[in-house]
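Entry:
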Amino acid sequence: MEYELIDAGPSRKSMKLKFSQEDVDNAFDQTYQEINNQVRLRGFRKGKAPRRVLENRFSKEAADSARQLLLDEKIPETAKAENVEILGTTRLVNTKDMPKPGEPFEANVEFDVMPEFELPEYKGLEIAEQPVNVSEKDVDDALLRYQKSFANYQEVDEPAKVGDILKVDFVTTSGGEEIMAMKEQRLRVEGEMLFGLPVPDLEAKFTGAKKGDKVELTITLPDDHPNADLRGKEATTVVDVLAVERGDLPELNDEFAKGLGFESMEDFRHRLNDNLIREGLVAARSKEEEEIIEKLLAAADFPVPESLVKAEAQNLVQARGRQLAGMGVAANAALFAQLEKYRPEAEKEATKKVRWSFIATKIAEKENIQVTNEDLSTHIEALAQAYGTTPAKIVQRIRSMNGISPMLAEIQGIKVIQFITNNTKGKAPTTTEDTKAMNADAAKSAQGLTGEGESE
């Protein structure tokens, strides 16, 4: 067999394969033998049908199989000889050309390859310090959230007060188009957010509301709204109040703390303080990681395979669709139009993600950063905890979706960014507890892979 390997674009190769008559005949011999062993023809014992009979009945199937046999054997062999790593699947260019017994055969295929680039300096980076401060008020606020979560709420026939919960239906429209709708939702008369939408006067708007009331709000959609066309625009939300519920807050004392498994209220406050510090450290480390990635992306600008970008962009578009559906946006033509408008933004983000994956892979190879069985177990446990399920169910889900390779790549990426972070200027190394917390935090981003966030 002869071949020719040429560039077909950024990080993409074209391979022209020329198979000899002998190569083709051997492939057909093997193919017809397999067909003979698998089918039973009337008048012949299994495996004993003459070749001419098989050719009359299965010539098209044999040609398809022989061509695939030639490609499956020779493409990896040729790539290895050329020291080329094939990414993803190969694409056959001349799909209508089929091999014939007794004749040579040519096939052209294209595939993505690892881009060639120089690693930027990734050790000793200077990044902005992210201070973590937890005050007594922060602990008080956390304690109040616990107190409210254990309140016993009952429906009351009275006007709503701050802290009450309203059972509501609501619809949000903008420009005459429905963009969000939900039924029988629970809205706390508190703060300034209405199911993800900013309402600065929320408490004033709903204080005094009664069952059967209709409250109309004019709001400005946030700058990070999932639909880029709606960012900063005005919207109208009509809320139907179905019921008013009021809760009796439990007393914050040692008995309350012991009911949650703590020795005393002082012990409970101490643990809350520790948890808030840990959450702050994880958030700070996440910002540091974002800064590191942005620095390295800026220092290593190289083209990436278009097919990988499009596949990742499609994942992002699907995730955005699930997000909008969770916000009450109906799956209709308008939603699909929104998602298509989002696609260019998704492709831009996908390009960054794919480029970073190549940088991380190259750093892992240089620093011999590998994923161990212990790493995998820790990550699966973090996923199970994040989605309130069992490690066994996570493993089952991963296997059903053939998701082990993406998960290993994700874990390796986590280890790479931790390695870089630990080697930034003046930065203390990551502790075991930090690593566990960051794994749990990172695991929450794997919803698209595991699907556990939707099914549990």
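Residues 282 and 437 are 7 Å apart (CA to CA).
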